[in-house]
Write a structure and sequence with these properties.
The complex is a heterodimer of chains A (289) and B (209). With 289 residues, chain A is α/β, with parallel strands linked by helices. Chain A has helices at 2-12, 16-32, 43-57, 73-89, 104-118, 135-141, 185-197, 207-218, 228-242, 250-253, 255-288; strands at 62-67, 94-98, 126-131, 176-181, 201-205, 224-227. In chain A, 55% of the residues lie in helices and 11% in strands. The chains are: A alpha/beta (289), B mainly alpha (209).
């Protein structure tokens, strides 16, 4: 018994670099093998898609606010791409913009890819308004006038001259706002946008922000929520089932490494705790003697 | 293996960041400084080209004596901020701070009351106890958990008897909430690692497709 306790104690004092190695292998090995997990769409994901479908059916343009930079691209890029495929396959017009300066370059790149794939006309099928500062004032102010905060689009064209913006004066003229964000902006959209102007808000966020946003989903202030890479994988599966995309993407590819890494972490936490209690027991034994 | 020089630069810099996992080293320090410098430069240029010049300099230059004359007040507030660096007039910077805070709070307080307090209270009070068993159970946990967590922060009565027991349940509710947040953080961090490894193995080395 004491031998096992000693071994557990030693394991709980393991050099942290071994732990890094275990996690690295847990993530890398499933990527190198053809194993791929499937995520069946949850109720939340179905709810998100229903809300997006409702926005598409209304015939009005959809606004998409992209608020993530390179640091969270791995988690949110698949979510944004899935939403873009969903919008553009249904021939819905979309107005893109960002309130985070580091999201400008990635958004341009994603839109260029979509333009090529779906043969879109810039200014007619979609537009990128670029970046606006002072997010709180912009969110609130767009409820009355978009032009006050975006005088021109990302290419410098005044927004009055952009065909897609002809009938869009404020946020009330779009069917929904989709916010794909790695920061607290969805919460601010609820506060400065939904509370004041009552439009439909759909959010794709990182897993870190998920627990902050679930209460708003329950109250209906959020119409749909895709939280983290797993929700991205579920949405990819749903879009494949609906025939929107041919095959799943990086979010689904990340499921197997994520599962193995989490299992490894659980095992490491169990070993660490067992070692802690074993050491306590050993110390007690030494004290008793 | 990629032949794109940008991919190579990104891959080498990624390895530089990962090298910190072994120990602190000059390669990591160089990459760290490069990242901070690039980010600052990028942000400065973005604000300069997208905000400062088109929103302030150009309108003042073109219509400063006419339709955009109100922007001179913004310039005045900017100078008030800068007063903090001059000892004899440093208190003037508080005027700029007061102006900023009053606008922010004027916007934030009513909207937060509406979205964060009233709507949430109504949402909790208005849950239905009809429907499928799992839904009723979920709503009981929601209402009971909220009340228990609130009791934990109720300090006007000693945490003894029923109040103490409810506060104890509230502690568990909070711990479960923190646990859920922590597990989501782990998920996020692993997703970032997956993204970087996909980049190294697919975009750089080309060993997976």
């Amino acid at each position: 018994m004491s031998r096992i306790a000693m071994a557990l104690t030693r394991l709980s004092n393991l050099d942290r670099r071994w732990i890094f190695l275990v996690i690295l292998l847990a993530v890398a090995l499933p990527l190198l093998t053809p194993v791929e997990f499937r995520a069946s769409p949850s109720d939340e994901t179905l709810r998100f898609d229903d809300a997006l479908q409702k926005a598409i059916d209304s015939g009005k343009p959809i606004m998409v606010d992209v608020d993530f930079g390179p640091q969270t691209m791995a988690e949110l890029e698949p979510v944004l791409l899935a939403v873009m495929h969903r919008i553009f396959t249904s021939k819905t017009k979309a107005i893109f913009f960002t309130l985070s300066p580091d999201a400008t370059a990635p958004t341009r790149r994603y839109l260029a890819r979509m333009e090529k794939q779906y043969n879109l006309n810039y200014g007619e099928d979609y537009v990128f308004l670029g970046y606006a500062s002072s997010f709180a004032y912009t969110m609130y102010g767009m409820g009355t006038s978009i032009e006050t905060y975006f005088h021109s689009d990302d290419r410098g064209t005044p927004i009055r001259r952009i065909p897609i913006m002809a009938n869009v004066e404020s946020i009330k003229d779009v069917s929904a706002v989709v916010n794909i964000a790695s920061n607290a902006f969805p919460k601010f959209w609820i506060q400065y946008g939904v509370a004041a102007f009552g439009f439909d808000l759909l959010v794709g966020c990182t897993a870190v922000n998920a627990t902050d946003l679930y209460p708003y989903l329950q109250t209906g202030q959020l119409k749909g929520l895709l939280a983290g890479g797993r929700a991205g994988a579920e949405y990819e599966t749903l879009l494949v089932e609906k025939g929107v995309i041919e095959k799943t993407g990086d979010a689904t590819r990340g499921l197997a490494p994520q599962s193995l890494a989490l299992l490894s972490l659980l095992a490491l936490i169990a070993v660490g705790n067992a070692g802690y209690f074993a050491r306590k027991r050993l110390d007690k034994g030494v004290g008793a003697r | 293996m990629s032949t794109d020089p940008y991919i190579w630069v990104a891959a080498i810099l990624t390895l530089g960041v990962f090298s910190f996992l072994l120990r602190d080293n000059p390669f990591f320090c160089a990459v760290e400084h490069l990242l901070v410098g690039l980010s600052t430069g990028y942000m400065f240029c973005t604000y300069w080209h997208n905000v400062f010049v088109p929103e302030l300099v150009t309108p003042l230059w073109e219509h400063g004596a006419g339709s955009e004359a109100h922007l001179w007040a913004v310039v005045g507030i900017c100078f008030l901020w800068a007063c903090k660096y001059v000892e004899s007039v440093k208190d003037l910077s508080r005027l700029a701070l007061a102006f900023w805070l009053s606008i922010d709070l004027g916007l934030a307080i009513p909207t937060e009351m509406e979205a964060g307090v009233i709507a949430q209270v109504v949402g909790t009070m208005g849950v239905s106890f009809n429907g499928p068993v799992e839904e009723i159970f979920g709503n009981v946990v929601l209402v009971g958990g909220t009340l228990a967590a609130l009791t934990y922060f109720f300090f006007s009565k000693a945490h003894k008897g029923v109040v103490g027991a409810t506060a104890k349940v509230g502690t568990w509710v909070l711990m479960i909430g923190f646990g859920a947040s922590f597990s989501y953080i782990l998920l996020s961090r692993i997703a970032l690692l997956i993204g970087r490894l996909l980049f190294l193995l697919r975009d750089w080395l080309g060993v997976i497709h």
